[in-house]
Amino acid sequence: MQKKEYSLDLAGEKLSATFSDLTDQTNGSVLVRLGQTLVLATVVMSAGQRDDIDYFPLTVEYEEKFYATGKILGSRFQKREGKPSDEAVLSGRIVDRTIRPLFDDYIRNEIQVVLTVLSIDAKNDPDTVAVIAASLALGTSNIPWNGPASAVRIGLASETDSDFSINPSYEKRQEAFLDLLVCGQEEKINMIESEAKEIAEAKLAEAFKQASITIEQIQTWQKEVIKEQAKTKLVIEKPSLNPEIKTLFDQEMRPQLEAVVFGGADTAKAAYEIRDAWVKKMKEQFPDTSSALLITLFESAVNDLVHQKGLEENKRADGRALTEVRSLYTQAGELSPIIHGSGIFYRGGTHVLTVLTLGGPNDSQIIEGMEIQEKKYFMHHYNFPRFSVGETGRMGGMNRRSIGHGALAEKSLRGVIPAREIFPYTIRLVSEVLASNGSSSMASVCASTLALMDGGVPITAPVAGIAMGLLLGEQGDYKILT
């Protein structure tokens, strides 16, 4: 075996990356270790491109292995690893959301990033290690990617504490006032996961500054490693359309866009209708042209128009001011005397029903996973049926989005749930998205607060959630949206 190791002192822990021929059939791979937490990252890209899709086909798989704990886990009847745990799904989403924006979105080669946790200690969470491992594997591979990117976890023990901890242990995070995971590059942040107990904005800003300092330390190290280990990047040409099609679009479609996109109600439906009609027409005139390229041209023009109107005229497609919240409606209870509490929350076209169920201590969820072994007394589950967006599809089962959104709302609420000494019940919340026009996870937070109060749970404060967006211009000008 041929191998070479690089290391960095990161807040008193050794961070190392080992390159070898262990997985020599991949485009790139690396073993990254922090303390005794060890993650193998592999990246593979397909030889051919898919011409039947209009999106970038990236998949990120986060593989938990029971042996990583040094224990034989599982049930009496099943000792193999089964479906991904919620923790594995959430960790995979962290990596995905960090690396995805750094690819050119016109790539149509399938790319798969696999993070396999080979060892885990009691201090170092593999999710931060996985981000760095994915970055190094991609950065040293021949796959085009605009990295590197790094991750760090920032902790704060109490509201009055002035010292942030870097990558705090699991034990410290249990009772932490702030648990913040930040990913980014070049002093810019592109992924955040956070849980806190009503932290002040100024203190949170300090945490982001500390995170950026540490991220740049890891970035400098990664760049040195990549400089020595990098393969020559493959060149993937950006697909181009027939200039005649672009001319026809500018003449026939672009003049219609403002009236359709900024036409008030049902703008999305109207936009899809004229898009599909135009794609059909172009396919008849230019049968060899990819439908995906035609759709991309249309949607890029809509995106440019929305940015232009927002930045220059403070206009939104639905007519609201940039700081204006959609119309709200709330209802607590009145659903059924059988259930223990309920809340209905409307924000514009997004409607969520949350139902509360209370149980005894024995109704808690027992978790025996690679990373977490505990009894869980508070849980929030999120369901997003296809009818909520006017579509048909398979019902039942969980996907990564539902698990991620459920966990997001659960983190938002956990800080106000009473201690078990005060309220010893097991608490389960289920948020049903019944209609969606964006920000359903944050509507779930609001509906859950209503359900908790309706059921008499003595939360320390009500919680509201809202999604935020950013319109960014080419010259660095920007507008913030609610």
Structure in words:
The protein is of the alpha+beta class and about 475 residues long. It folds into 3 domains: about 5-150 and about 200-230, GHMP Kinase, N-terminal domain (Ribosomal Protein S5, domain 2), CATH 3.30.230; about 245-320, Polyribonucleotide nucleotidyltransferase, RNA-binding domain (Arc Repressor Mutant, subunit A, Orthogonal Bundle); about 330-465, Ribosomal Protein S5, domain 2, CATH 3.30.230.70. Helix content is about 30%, strand content about 30%. It is built from 9 helices and 19 strands. It has helices spanning about 85-100, 125-140, 170-175, 200-230, 245-260, 265-285, 290-315, 400-415, 440-455; strands at about 5-10, 15-20, 30-35, 35-50, 60-65, 110-120, 150-155, 165, 180-185, 190-195, 330, 340-345, 350-360, 365-370, 375, 380-385, 425-435, 470, 480. The strands form 5 sheets. Strands 1-2-3-4-6-5 form a 6-stranded mixed β-sheet. Helix 1 links the parallel strand 5 and strand 6. Helix 1 packs across helix 8 (about 400-415), helix 5 (about 245-260) packs antiparallel against helix 6 and helix 8 crosses helix 9 (about 440-455). The longest helix is centred in the middle third of the chain and has 29 residues, at about 200-230. It is globular. The model has no long low-confidence stretch (mean pLDDT about 95).
